[in-house]
Design a protein that fits this description.
Layout (H helix, E strand, L loop, with lengths): L11 H10 L1 E5 L4 E3 L7 E15 L5 E7 L4 E2 L13 E14 H10 L1 H27 L2 H17 L6 E2 L3 H8 L3 H13 L3 E4 L2 E4 L2 H14 L4
Antiparallel strand pairs: 1-6, 2-6, 3-4, 3-5, 3-6, 7-9, 8-9
């Protein structure tokens, strides 16, 4: 599975039934797809564009959790418990997506049990990633948090393939790990000097996953803050 796209792993006839039931929806740049506490009315699969998954505080602060990209599904895990949506989803650039109403999705789940299994597995995966993010925020020094985010995001998006590209700005990284852009810049410069990553126009290119893991371990041992 690449990213959060379980549709690609379905059997061909199940995938065909799912896609044929979808309608196409286009969101403009900066649109709110869901706010925290909204009822879930539709499930989406991104065809093009990006969606920011964030927690927004009452005073306007943002904790960025993930940036969904082409192929990823959003709001599917919320169908498991029928609770209101727990995060905020905002488009970054224009987004084109497949959309299924909750009732259509329920019918597809009933007709194709493979979809139900895929959603359950996806929900578990998302929960593990969220818990790992919280663990990092609570236990790792800043430099280790930054390196660990790079490593984990590369694995989510592309397995553990060397050379994985992450379309993240330094501001994005800071929002993900709870630090300033200046701290991110300092760590990125250090990682680049060590040949562990490279950067190019808002992208981070992972060059040495094993080296990143060693760097994280060393930073944990040193307990360096930021």
């Amino acid at each position: 599975m690449s990213g959060f796209n379980w549709v690609e792993d379905l059997k061909p006839h199940t995938r065909k039934a799912l896609i044929e039931r979808a309608r196409i929806k286009i969101f403009p740049d900066g649109a709110t797809i869901y706010s925290q506490g909204d009822p879930v009315t539709d499930v989406y699969q991104i065809i093009s564009g990006e969606v920011r998954k964030s927690i927004l505080t009452e005073d306007g602060q943002e904790a960025l959790m993930y940036i969904y990209k082409s192929g990823d599904l959003i709001a599917d895990s919320s169908l498991v418990d029928d609770d209101p949506y727990s995060v905020t989803l905002l488009t970054r650039g224009e987004v084109t997506a497949r959309a299924w109403s909750v009732s259509d999705f329920a019918a597809l789940r009933a007709a194709h049990h493979e979809i139900e299994s895929a959603i359950s597995a996806q929900s578990s995966r998302r929960l593990k990633e969220t818990l790992k993010l919280v663990e990092e925020l609570l236990t790792l020094p800043v430099a280790a948090r930054i390196a660990s985010r790079f490593l984990r995001l590369s694995k989510i998006g592309d397995g553990s393939v060397e050379g994985a590209d992450l379309a993240l700005s330094q501001a994005d990284i800071g929002l993900m790990v709870g630090t300033t852009r200046q701290s991110v810049n300092r760590v990125v410069t250090e990682l680049r000097k060590q040949g562990l990553i490279d950067t190019d126009y808002g992208k981070v290119i992972i060059k040495d996953s094993a080296g990143l893991q060693r760097y994280i371990t060393e930073q944990k041992r040193l307990g360096r803050g930021g």
